[in-house]
Structure formats: C-alpha cells, structure tokens
C-alpha cells in the first residue's frame, strides 16, 4: 500500500507541477493583457457617418440657405432693374436737353432772321412800304415763336409721361 500511496503522491506532485507550469504560462500570457487591450483598441480619427444621416444634414443645410439666396438674388435683380430704369431716365433727359440745345441754336438764327425782317420791315415802312406787309411779318414771327413754345411743351410732356411710366413700373415691381 505504501507503494501505491507513494505512486499516488508522486502522480499528485507531477500534476501539481504541471498545473503550476500551466499557471505560469497563463500568467505570462495574461500579464500583458491590459497593454494588448489598449494597443488593439481602435481609435477613430475621423467620424464616419451613415449616408442617410449625411443626406439629411445636406438637405437641412440646403433648406436653410435656399431662402436667403433667393432673397439676395431678388434684391440684386431689383437693384439692377432700378439702375437700368435710372439709365433710361438719364438717356431720355440727355436727349431732351440735346433737343432743347438744338432748338435754341435753331432759334437764334430765327431770331436773327426775325430781327433782320423787322429791321427790313422798319426800313420798308420808312421807305413807304405798306402797313399790311409789316403786319404779316409780325404775325409770322409771332407764329414761329408760338410753334417753338409748343414744341418745347410737347417735349416736356413726353418726358413727364416717360417718367410717370417708369414710376408706375417701379411701383409695380416693388409690389
């Protein structure tokens, strides 16, 4: 019995030694486990988003910006239209002023002619010309002056008409 007991004891000692070696092996393998966990842990350097989330963010940004862009575009187009109307008004004013200048230069020769005609009529009267011819010359000069005044009035009314049309268009565009 002693031999069987001694063999049991030796078997138990070898099992304990094997178990101790296994524990040491496991301990050396597990001993580095916290460092391995840290090394193997994934670090996100960039945030990855799913495509639907990205599309939702783009759509919300688009919905937020679109009204502002439309408003700015309408303001810019209104300003451009305003500048175009102002340019047209200035062109019309320039044309009217040019017309006035040309009519003034035309008036001066007419005034010179009428003065020469009146001096000729005066000389004619002095020379004994008939009173009727002098009266006709005076009437003609008065009619020419009236024609020039009416032409100026028509030009002024046309300018006022175009200005009122522009104001009307401007008020309609503002609404």
UniProtKB/TrEMBL annotation:
Residues 100-130 have a biased composition (Polar residues). It is found in: Chromosome, Centromere, Kinetochore; Cytoplasm, Cytoskeleton, Spindle; Nucleus. It comes from the Eukaryota. InterPro entries: DASH_Spc19. Its main location: nucleus. Residues 96-130 are annotated as: Disordered. One of its GO terms (biological process) is attachment of spindle microtubules to kinetochore. GO terms for cellular component: DASH complex; spindle microtubule. Keywords: Centromere, Chromosome, Cytoplasm, Cytoskeleton, Kinetochore, Nucleus. Belongs to the DASH complex SPC19 family. This is DASH complex subunit SPC19. The lineage of its organism: Eukaryota, Fungi, Dikarya, Ascomycota, Pezizomycotina.
């Amino acid at each position: 019995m002693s031999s069987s007991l001694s063999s049991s004891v030796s078997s138990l000692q070898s099992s304990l030694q094997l178990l101790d070696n296994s524990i040491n092996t496991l301990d050396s393998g597990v001993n580095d486990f916290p460092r391995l966990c840290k090394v193997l842990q994934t670090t996100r350097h960039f945030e990855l988003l799913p495509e639907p989330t990205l599309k939702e963010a783009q759509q919300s940004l688009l919905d937020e910006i679109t009204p502002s862009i439309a408003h700015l575009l309408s303001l810019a187009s209104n300003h451009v239209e305003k500048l175009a109307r102002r340019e047209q008004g200035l062109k019309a004013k320039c044309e009217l002023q040019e017309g006035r200048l040309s009519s003034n230069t035309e008036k001066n020769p007419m005034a010179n002619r009428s003065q020469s005609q009146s001096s000729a009529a005066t000389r004619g009267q002095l020379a004994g010309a008939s009173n009727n011819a002098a009266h006709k010359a005076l009437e003609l000069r008065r009619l020419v002056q009236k024609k020039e005044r009416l032409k100026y009035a028509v030009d002024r009314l046309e300018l006022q008409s175009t200005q009122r049309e522009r104001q009307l268009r401007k008020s309609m565009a503002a609404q």
